[in-house]
Specification:
483 residues; alpha+beta; Glucose Oxidase, domain 3; FAD/NAD(P)-binding domain; seven-stranded antiparallel β-sheet; four-stranded mixed β-sheet; 14 helices; binds flavin-adenine dinucleotide; oxidoreductase; GMC_OxRdtase
């Protein structure tokens, strides 16, 4: 959590909140849906793009790229990007996997670039890495002029009140120490802890505040509501023994992956973004919403990105079945990027030491079930039914589960319920338009803003760090201009 003092390089501190990793911007339609929902074009893709560009340094020189590609990227920002090719990682199955996707109609994007606003298709993985190392935001952005308090758990925001206004004046730490802001307080505790701190400060649903003996400051029923996250399921796949013997997948017997370039990024080539069959999507929305969706339904007006699939040259991260890490298997992840399920974050006590109570309500809508089923069947088809896939993949390793291609909808859903988990992309719990206004001020109070993933009112079909960096950059501009 940060308390920030205007005039002390606010942008550095606001953006120093993101975890490093996959650099995946997402779909322009998602930012546009966000802007439309809150009625403020500053949050559209077009208007977030300058902030995305400001954040990044593309691995390639600007003049070495086609003008249309260069126009989408930054070349002098603090966060360095790297692609599979730019790091010299040459995975033996690269072309086979690409060909397998092509056989089901998914082709490579222009320049294999998924970070240009239209990710539907096959893109080369891009990561936030400099010289092979992941970048922490605290190393990418300078902290000069910023006071950082470590080992300092924030309990609550403190306020002053007069007849008409309640104004945030500072924070209280768990040990009772108080720190006062010179200008305003900005909460950036993430989608789980920001709503917790708001509630501990007396800002939240009246009943929850009362149950936990917290003196109310503002009845704000939407604090903690609207929680969304990207659900992820992994699957293991057995390689043909003759292909495995060539050392194409990471494992204890495979020397290739010990070469130094393979330590510079994840063991995969392609990030594949796909949509859902329209008629099935309409039926799923109708089942969830109780009536046929109108033509201007936000999930139908454009072809939206719903699923991300990664085929990974390593067998790992799956609870069952137990597979030796010997290069005999690969794995896949299917991620639901556009969930319509909404959960809630709440509290169980008035102590900041107690974890917030998180009910993600994953996979509770027909749309989300359709997305996960479709993603699983799609990757099974790519690996087991295409000529290119059959040339390296023998079968699915699905101990204890019905094979994907022969499973019923109910069997697939049971499998997702048993094995899927988070992608660590929660958002939405202090949503813009509900809890904060479009300048990130907590509605109904003075001197308090939220700048983190909790303000994202709708899911972004991405890995969230790019969106959070761009949000923080735009927030810094807004805050700077407001004084
Ligand atoms: C394991 C993991 C891997 C990820 N990998 C990727 C990836 O590869 N690519 C990608 O794009 N995204 C990735 N993400 C997602 C990305 O990191 C988040 O979306 C992003 O960091 C959200 O930013 P935020 O500012 O909302 O919250 P956070 O980055 O979580 O920042 C919240 C901060 O507030 C602090 N805090 C919370 N409560 C208190 C308190 N009471 N007092 C004081 N401080 C407090 C926390 O310690 C934390 O530093 C990953 C996330 C995780 C967890």
């Amino acid at each position: 959590m940060l308390i920030k003092y205007l005039g002390v390089g606010i942008w550095e501190t606001v953006v120093n909140k993101c975890v490093e990793g996959g650099w995946i911007r997402g779909d322009a339609h998602d930012y546009d849906a966000w802007a439309k929902l809150v009625g403020d074009e500053r949050w559209s893709y077009e208007n977030m793009l300058p902030y995305m560009k400001k954040t990044e340094t593309h691995w390639s020189a600007e003049d070495a790229l086609p003008a249309t590609v260069a126009a989408q990227h930054g070349f002098s920002g603090p966060v360095f990007q790297a692609s599979v090719s730019s790091t010299g990682r040459k995975f033996p199955l690269k072309d086979n996997v690409k060909q397998a996707w092509a056989e089901i109609g998914i082709s490579e994007l222009p320049g294999a670039d998924g970070n240009a606003g239209s990710p539907l298709g096959l893109a080369e993985l891009q990561e936030n890495r400099r010289d092979g190392l992941r970048q922490l935001s605290s190393s990418a952005y300078p902290l000069e002029g910023v006071t950082v308090l470590t080992d300092s758990l924030v309990k609550r925001v403190i306020f002053s009140k007069d007849l008409y206004t309640t104004t945030a004046t500072g924070i209280e730490l768990a040990d009772g120490t108080k720190k006062y802001a010179r200008k305003e307080v900005i909460l950036s505790c993430g989608a789980y802890r920001t709503p917790q701190i708001l509630m501990l400060s007396g800002i939240g649903p009246e009943d929850i505040l009362a149950e936990n003996g917290i003196e109310p400051v503002l009845d704000s029923p939407e604090v903690g509501a609207n929680l969304w996250d990207h659900l992820l399921i992994r699957t293991l796949w057995k390689l043909l023994p003759s292909v495995a013997a060539q050392g194409v997948s990471m494992g204890s017997n495979n020397a290739l992956f010990t070469e130094k370039e393979f330590a510079t990024g994840a063991p995969l080539d392609w990030v594949v973004s796909t949509t859902l069959p329209r008629e099935e999507l309409i039926a799923a929305i109708a089942a969830d919403e109780g009536s046929e969706p109108a033509a201007d339904h936000p999930l139908l007006t454009q072809t939206r990105t719903f699923i991300e699939t990664l085929i990974i040259y390593a067998a790992g991260g799956v609870a069952t079945p137990a597979i030796p890490f010997d290069g005999s298997h690969i794995s896949s992840t299917v991620i639901g990027l556009m969930p319509t399920s909404r959960g809630r974050v709440t509290i169980s006590s008035s102590s900041p030491v107690d974890a917030p109570v998180i009910d993600p309500k994953y996979f509770s809508t027909s749309v989300d079930k359709l997305a996960m089923r479709t993603g699983l069947r799609q990757v099974a088809k790519v690996l087991l039914k295409t000529n290119a896939g059959k040339a390296f993949c023998e079968d699915e390793a699905a101990e204890g589960h019905k094979l994907i291609l022969s499973a019923t909808d109910a069997e697939l859903e049971a499998r997702v319920a048993a094995l899927a988990g988070t992608t660590f992309h929660p958002g939405g719990t202090a949503a813009m338009g509900r809890v904060v206004d479009t300048e990130l001020n907590v509605i109904g109070l003075k001197g308090l803003r939220v700048v983190d993933a909790s303000v994202l009112p709708v899911p972004i079909a991405s890995h969230l760090q790019v969106a959070v960096y761009a949000l923080a950059e735009q927030a810094a501009d807004i805050i700077g201009r407001s004084k």
